[in-house]
Design brief:
Blueprint (H helix, E strand, L loop, with lengths): L4 H5 L1 H62 L4 H20 L5 H26 L5 H7 L1 H79 L13 H98 L5 H53 L4 H44 L8 H81 L5
Helix pairs in contact: 2-3, 2-4, 2-6, 3-4, 4-5, 4-6, 6-7, 7-8, 7-10, 8-9, 9-10
Amino acid sequence: MAMRLKQKMMVLPVVAAAFLVAIVTVTVVLGARTRSASERIGSSLAPSVSQAQTSRAGFAALHQDVGDAVALHAVQQQTLDAHVTELNKGLAALRALPDVDGAKVEALQGAFARYWQEASQVVALAARNDAGAEGALAKLEPAYRTMHDGLESVTAQQEAAQREAFTEVSSLHGTTLTWVLVLSVACILMLAVATVWLLREVTTPLARLTATATRIVREGDLSLAIDTSAQDEVGELARSIQTLMTRLGSVPGTLHSVVTELTAAAARLNAASHEQLNFLTSQSRSLTEASSTIAEIAQTSGMAASRAEMVLKVAAQADAYSSSGQLSIERSAEGLQQIRARVGALVGSIGVLSEQAVHAGEIIGSVKDLADQSNVLALNAAIEAARAGEEGRGFAVVAKEMRALSSQSLLSTQRIGKILLEINQAIRETVGIAEEDSQKMEEGIEQVLSSATTLKDITQVVQESSQAARQIVASVTQQNAGITQMTEVVTQLSEMMSDVVMATSNAEQAVGQINTSLGKLQELSTAFRV
């Protein structure tokens, strides 16, 4: 089974840890043995050797003091007793040590007791200056020799044991150093082998993969071969990069075709937005002109309303005159003298009425011209509304209402003109009759009565003219309100058109930005080699 990258990376620490554990184990085991031997030397062998040497020296000093006591006849019993006590304590301490032959030390204690027994007698003889002291000293020599040889033997034995212990410590120390050195060298060799193996299995493939990825990033060459033979994470990474390169290989072509299509679409969109901007600019100018025209129409409509008010006033005056004339004719039955006077006044009034009728005809002509202009402007407004499309639907309704009002005003004007023509004709006939029959008043009462009837008709016509004038005023007022509404609609359309022109300009700028981004995408699509 192939090792994973994590397992491969654990080889070096595992090998190092294993050898470290081995080194520590060897050091601990051999160190424990060395420490045990050292403790044995320090706690037993060295004290036993020291104690044996001390006892040997003390015994030699004691024997020398005994000899001095015989030779010099100077006995220091306290000193001898102190030496004996110290030797006994030393032999007892030596016997208590663990690495000392207790039997030998016990035999030495017995031999020392026998020696001191004989030595005490020698000292006692020397103290009495007895001549047998020297003989007794000579007899003491075998006991001394036995004790001396025993101490020498114990000392030699302990020194030999101490040397053996030191040799063992030195051997253990050398063995420890040898094992540590061997294990260290083996660890270094194993780590070197593991390092070479890791370089071959991990580092080298990663270096090759890194170099390939660097070339792909730097040169954009997607045709480079990648080693995917490894079965660990490096191999999986290499296979993933190979798959990524395969997928990236299809990206530049697709991106290039998409960029080409988007570039063509952006060019078409740019042309369309440019045409739309030109069209909207033209529409905006047309709306501006229409707004100016409608302002002029509103001004003309205001003038027409003023003139219609004047017509209404004249018609009211005519109505008042006709009413007063009718009242005069009705009262003509009371007296022909009054009729004569009133006929003269009537002639004058009819002359004034004739003049007012002429002025009313002029006003009606102006109203007719205004209605014609309103009809033409309404037709132009309907055309502009049709060109504006959906945004001009309300404007088209207003234009239709204006045309209807203009047609109604034109019909009313024609009717009033016809009535005024009849009034002028009747006035001329009345004036002729009044002038022709002014001197035959007495004979023409019947004609006056007939004139009264005609005057009634005239009064009715004047009343109808007054009513028509009121309708004209109402129509002109309604027309003025429609023109005001049309002005507001045109103003709103102009503002909306300005917003549309601004939005189209922004769209054209956005298309320019899209073209810039498409250029960058085009450069990106050509940066890779497949």
